[in-house]
Automatic annotation (TrEMBL), chains A, B:
SUPFAM superfamilies: Galactose mutarotase-like, Six-hairpin glycosidases. This is Alpha,alpha-trehalose phosphorylase. Belongs to the glycosyl hydrolase 65 family. It comes from the Bacteria. The active site is at E494. Residues 333-686 form the Glycoside hydrolase family 65 central catalytic domain. Substrate binds at W367, D368, K598, Q599. Keywords: Glycosidase, Hydrolase. It comes from Amycolatopsis sulphurea. GO terms for biological process: carbohydrate metabolic process. GO terms for molecular function: carbohydrate binding; glycosyltransferase activity; hydrolase activity, hydrolyzing O-glycosyl compounds.
Length: 797, 797
């Protein structure tokens, strides 16, 4: 039994390799656990609220791409400022199953919960819950539930709800709802956004019959239509009475029955969701009723079995095993599970910064998706990576229009968006962060290298590459000395903005320009269709060849952007801990003009464009920026783990990896209530596979440079590349490579080329003496990871 | 008679040396003429609306410092963003005098106006009007009005209103109003601002008796209280019946009388205004009734006589005579008259960007005041300059608090404000434009040099200098090489922002630091009171000595800011005329990253800090920036005139001077309807006195380098300096200097020191061969000024 290996961590969750469990009820912790216990398949997302609906943190049912829009206010407007914002909408809630025990509602704030146990199972892909509850008048029941959002039937979710009287015969009434326009609390201070999200759904249709009901709504401003349907299977001995009813915002099945002690009321609730910007009410109703019929046809057991099979396949391709740190083991699987949930069935919709786990960041997708999440999916679930890139491609017209509005050529992808239109209201950290377009190109290139998917390249890849290359060609210019400069843009670090020749941006643009030229050469017909001629190709190559890359000879380091190294140092010693994150306590102007780094920027270039730096440069640059990076962004720790490992500071890499992996489980940024941080979860994979595994994929050549920190005994991960599934298993002195499935592959291990086959190959790990680790700003060093000191603890008590 | 010299210009106004006249009614032009015909004394401002109130452009009665506040909305907020905006309020309108002729209201949109003539008289300081009107049923009357806002009694305005039947006996009814909360059209798109300005005044008190009435109101949010009172003297043969009435937003005196042909109804309306953030309703009522009593005691003739005397004194000290360009002569006097109106009785209130002539810029004051307007006042009405600086000093606590909020020391004065609190909602072009604090210091220094006003220095000057010096000391830092850098700030040019080492800013900061150190040395007791010790003084001097001033050896020019010269060139050839002003058609990011200059920045440094550049550097820098400056700001032409003249391009200087001087009369920026551009009006003086006169005051030494463009025969201007009033008269070959009043002065003429006395001294003007003039961006050269080609034209017909 797994349960025998359970230990408790200091943050309420029990430590276990394949599940996440929280024992007991902690109302104050509900909102953050709802995020961690969220279920999603990338199309539907349901937060882990209790079936009874209350007590609750923040209810949330989301459909990928479904949003309301609202005016963006500006006290001082400007040309090209986006006028409309988009915010993810809490759609019709189908999770609700209310229980009355002899007319007393099961509400865990009243009576006594003698047991209450929730567990997210990474292998079954379900959220289970067992509650034993004694009502204020002493009636005792056991409620056992399990729910899933199906990976195999993307429009379908299902809940099994069992109630057992524990001491006596009891009259039970269950109300199973579809509930639209739930009142929710909003963090927004903007009255226009609040107004847009107050009862955002206008009822258009409702119908109920037998055990089945459907509600159709439309948003006021964005004009999107959503249909939700439910059906039920009810298993009980006898005496069941039911009633079904539907009105504008509510459909309700009421089931009443007397259940004997030892008996059980079992309700299986099937849910289906669909939305469209175009389909009519009848068409959308038909769509969800058909999905519902499919789900019912498969049945609960069938859905459970499909879910398990899907996850078995996933883990076979992507699992990471860590010996020596059980909490990290759990966190890494938690991360992979949620990344899978975010991306599995997105199917040409975005992967939002929070996935579908909460309303944070308004449900927007950012560059995080391509830079942090897609590499994970590319090497574990390449079809999901492809679908996410197809989403970007589907927004190409908006990106072209945005570029034209900005006076540029090609495509300028948005900094933040749900539907592909720019929603960033602060241009220095939004529009000016043009690197998002190169990040997309890089993800395209990585995906194409990893899969050789010519069909994708012809359908989407070449176009994405060439239109982003056009952006760079029009955004930069050749100076008097022939260097290609990209001025006035913002790199990944949000504590600097609108600077010249950001090295990360320039290196990524260089790769983008070269890759576009290569792809156009491979597909001259596509190039011709988009009007790319040899003059344009030559310009791209010249710009790439002559890309400006500032370097400070005196200091021997690369400036993040031109002039950065001449800026004043931040007074870290004088900055108390409560003043972090700095952006809440210091003005942008002060942050922008000093050498303080929110998140890896030049260090991210050391990772993604590592082929442009010598090992000595990497060591010097890393040390320089370590002393100035405060990690006020959850995007940073994973990248710092990767480069710390590369330059040989393995304990530091381990510290950063743990921070990235535990960001959400430990609520490091105190905002998990609004959803999980997908990029940070991806950082757990990056820190493991690119960090201790040393995975790099420059130019499509996979290479590894594995090294383990002292605390870990063994690290094993699985990847898929060009149809080959293989495994890398790392110990302190050697690494073992083995193909699990598919043809052999040429790889590089610590600089030496070799061929990995079905026969395990053991290769030695060379010794690296990195010297003393670099220092961090006062108080901003990551927590020293020591797995042996994780305190046994239950539910934060 | 002046009228014999009248010619008509192409813009509706008749050309005349001492007045501005518009003949006939042009409803479409009403709004802009209301700005030009505005009367003000710096305390009260009244737009030039017709007494009948309609037709109208935009009614407006303003009290300096009286505003409503409203929340500033941000789609994405940030630390240190101002939360409250301020907007000037149209207060109770006392200009209204409605006439009924045999029950037909005089409304010039109906019936026929056989004559209609308005004239702003620069010597009487009144706005006169004669209208002959035939009602739709053929009754004819002549209405003659004259109004003034008293320079001598700052709370008082008065209107004389005469009506004469022209053909027959007529029954006349006049309604004289105090009218609060007039409905006005607003340009704002922000519903919160619009809501704040919709009926902003809450009635608190009203009273009427005999011919006198008073209304007291309070603003909703800012909590300011305003009182307006009126009294009347009515002169008519007999049969007069009157009624007076007051309610919340209206007080009305109704006068009805039968007037015989050849007779006349004369109403003299006295108005008084007062406002306070603290005084009670009875106190404020008493204040305006007392002011009214004073005005009545002086009487109409007395007010007219005082006004004339005040203006005679003003012109004696400040007049500019231009021979050879009558339109420019008129424009320069118009400019001086409005600058006087804006500043004469401000008395520790701000001089707003639009003065009190319209609601533009929300009624805010900017750096324009200190940099452009105060130099004019310093040398013509030094007490007004002092009072404006006392306003800045009165906001010192807010400026210190703002600096502290931004993590800086000393005082950070606001980019835009009415009450001294920062109201700029876009920090890259607001908060980051720290130069405003050095501009204030420079104005303090100039005023002290020009007056030797030790009392001011001890009360305000030293404190202003030392607190702004502290700002610079904390804003900049010494780099590895010991240079003092000021990074991440915005200079005058709003088409660049947040750059390092803006030369204008650094030079002005250098002067500020040195001047503060000097003043602290002169007043060690004040220095001690503010805790300035020798260490701090040494830091200021070191920072000043080691100020970073980038220079490009290769190009031989100064970069406006570091990196500017490496930026891409703007595609001027590809920018059609309708795309100007660029900020309405291109995003900030694009403007900021290219070599395109909205307004003089480095060129303003060449003027104000001309002692830091060699003549050759000035010539090269001017030529370089001329080719890149588009003058999308009304602040620019005056400065370009000054430097064009200095480097010897006299026709170009003349072109720029004309543009600056005629900005409002020709409505160059198509926004005069919202108020006059005080800085551009000041630019007319700058272009004349600092341009063709070559006035400089570096270190308190006045110097001149006069030169006339070919078209002008003679230019004479008067200045006051350290109690001496003197005159400079320039011809092509020589200039004549003469003290009019006061002791002798040491001056410099073209580099040669001399002493000016009561005896006229004629000094020769050396020949300067400047070579060909520099070019401007395609389509952005100023109109070539040719006074002989000003077309005779009436009212735009």
């Amino acid at each position: 039994m797994e349960r025998t290996s359970v230990t408790e961590t200091g943050f309420g969750y029990e430590c276990s390799p394949w599940e996440l469990r929280w024992r007991g009820l902690d109302v104050d912790a509900l909102q953050r656990t709802e995020s961690a216990f969220a279920l999603s398949n990338g199309h539907i997302g349901m937060r882990g609220t209790l079936e009874e609906s209350e007590p609750r943190g923040l209810p949330g049912t989301y459909l990928n791409g479904f949003y309301e829009q609202h005016e963006l206010p500006y006290a001082e407007g400007g040309y090209g400022y986006p006028e409309e914002g988009q915010t993810v909408v809490n759609v019709t809630d189908g999770k609700v199953l209310r229980l009355l025990v002899e007319d007393e509602p099961l509400d865990m704030r009243y009576g006594v919960a003698t047991a209450h146990d929730r567990v997210l199972d990474f292998r079954s892909g379900t959220l289970r819950r067992v509650t034993e509850w004694s009502s204020p008048t002493g009636r005792r029941v056991r409620v056992t539930t399990e729910r899933l959002v199906s990976f195999t039937q993307r429009a379908v979710a299902a809940i099994r709800y069992d109630v057992e009287p524990l001491d006596e015969d009891l009259q039970l009434v269950v109300q199973s709802d579809l509930l639209a326009n739930e009142p929710i609390e909003s963090d927004t201070r903007d009255p226009r956004v609040a107004a847009a999200l107050d009862s955002p759904l206008v009822p258009q249709f409702c119908q109920a019959a037998d055990y089945q009901a459907v509600l159709v709504h439309e948003t006021r401003a964005s004009g999107l239509r959503v249909a939700a349907a439910m059906d039920h299977k009810i298993e009980v001995d006898n005496g069941l009475r039911t009633r079904i009813h539907a009105e504008g915002d509510l459909a309700r099945l009421t089931a009443a029955v007397d259940v004997r002690k030892g008996g059980r009321l079992r309700i299986t609730k099937f849910l289906a969701y669909g939305w469209s910007a175009q389909r009519s009410v009848p068409a959308l109703r038909a769509q969800v009723e058909a999905a519902l019929a499919g789900g019912r046809q498969t049945g609960w057991k069938g859905l459970i079995a499909e879910q398990r099979q899907f996850l078995d396949d996933f883990w076979a391709t992507s699992d990471i095993e860590i010996d020596g740190d059980p909490e990290l083991q759990q966190a890494v699987r938690f991360a992979l599970f949620h990344l899978l949930q975010a991306g599995a069935r997105g199917e040409t919709r975005a992967i939002a910064g929070k996935g579908l786990t909460g309303p944070g960041y308004d449900g927007h997708a950012f560059w995080d998706s391509e830079t942090f999440v897609l590499p994970v999916l590319t090497y574990t679930m390449p079809d999901a990576a492809r679908d996410a890139l197809r989403w970007r491609h589907s927004t190409m017209d908006k990106a072209r229009a945005r570029a034209a509005q900005l006076g540029l050529r090609g495509a300028a992808f948005p900094w933040r968006s749900i539907n592909g239109a720019e929603c960033s209201a602060y241009w220095p950290a939004g529009t000016a962060a043009f690197h998002v377009s190169a990040d997309i190109a890089d993800a395209v290139l990585r995906y194409m290298y990893a899969t050789g998917d010519i069909e994708f390249e012809r359908d989407c890849g070449t176009e994405l590459l060439l239109e982003t290359a056009r952006l760079w060609a029009s955004l930069g210019h050749f100076d008097h000395h022939g260097h290609f400069r990209i001025d006035g843009v913002t790199g990944p670090d949000e504590y600097s903005a609108v600077a010249d020749n950001n090295i990360y941006t320039n290196l990524m643009a260089r790769r983008n320009l070269s890759a576009a030229a290569d792809s156009c050469r491979r597909h001259p017909d596509i190039a011709a269709r988009f009007g790319v001629d040899t003059v344009e190709l030559d310009t791209w190559r010249s710009a790439a060849d002559m890309m400006a890359l500032p370097y400070d000879q005196e200091l021997g380091v690369h400036p993040q952007s031109e002039g950065f190294l001449q800026h004043d140092e931040w007074d870290f010693a004088g900055t108390e801990e409560e003043f972090y994150p700095l952006l809440l306590n210091y003005p942008y102007f002060d942050l922008y003009r000093k050498q303080v780094v929110k998140q890896a920027d030049l260090v991210l270039a050391l990772h993604l464009c590592g082929d442009s730096f010598s090992p000595e440069e990497k060591a010097r640059d890393f040390a320089y920026y370590e002393a100035r990076t405060v990690r006020d962004s959850s995007l940073s720790a994973g990248t710092q783990a990767v480069i710390a490992a590369e330059v040989g500071h393995l304990q530091l890499a381990y510290d950063y990896l743990a921070e990235a992996a535990l960001t959400d489980l430990h609520d490091v940024h105190n905002n998990v209530r609004n959803g999980l941080h997908m990029a940070s979860l991806a950082g757990a994979w990056q820190g493991t596979v690119a960090g201790f595994g040393g995975l790099r994929d420059h130019g499509g050549q996979l290479s590894f440079a594995p090294r383990l920190p002292g605390a870990l005994r063994r690290l094993t991960f699985r990847l898929t590349f060009r149809g080959t599934r293989f495994q890398v298993s790392i110990r302190h002195t050697h690494a073992t490579y083995q193909v699990l499935d598919g043809p052999t592959l040429d790889l590089i291990h610590h600089g030496e080329r070799f061929t990995v086959t079905a026969e395990p190959q053991q290769l030695p790990i060379p010794v690296l003496n990195a010297g003393p680790p670099p220092s961090q700003p006062a108080g901003r060093a990551p927590a020293r990871r020591d797995a042996s000191k994780v305190r046994p603890f239950i539910n934060g008590g």
